[in-house]
Write a structure and sequence with these properties.
Helices cover 25% and strands 37% of the residues. With 111 residues, the chain is an alpha+beta fold. The chain has a single domain (3-103), classed as TATA-Binding Protein. Strands 1-2-3-4-5 form a five-stranded mixed sheet, with helices on one face. Strand 2 and strand 3 (52-64) form a beta hairpin. The two termini are 23 Å apart.
């Protein structure tokens, strides 16, 4: 199994687990969305709160050029560290929501 297949399985495992957490508001649903062909995975919240539509991406991870790109994270979860704990080397993780300039000051890949 190459890295892309392995990383895809790890991402799916993690995000499915987080999508199972129920929001405090019973009118909001968390959905795991996965495009396996293009290696895009997200958790999206959908529903209503006080007559206001709730729709938004909570976590978004991609696999690009053999690396895991954390594109968006609005949680307190350190998803990069969780990936490292599962065996992904830091040089294969890109914090995509940081600018390339800022990425070079982290322990993770620049791109």
């Amino acid at each position: 199994m190459d890295n892309v297949d392995q990383y895809s399985k790890l991402i799916k495992q993690l995000l499915k687990e987080y999508a199972n957490y129920k929001p405090l508001n019973p009118n909001i649903e968390s959905q795991f969305v996965c495009d396996q062909e293009n290696h895009h995975s997200q958790i999206v919240n959908i529903g209503w709160q006080n007559q206001v539509r709730v729709y938004g991406c909570i976590l978004h991870l991609d696999i690009k050029d053999g690396k895991i790109w954390i594109q968006h994270n609005t949680t307190e979860i350190d998803i990069a560290q969780e990936l490292v704990d599962l065996g992904v080397p830091k040089h294969d993780i890109v914090i995509g929501f940081h600018s390339p300039f800022k990425r070079r000051f982290t322990e993770y890949a620049v791109n």
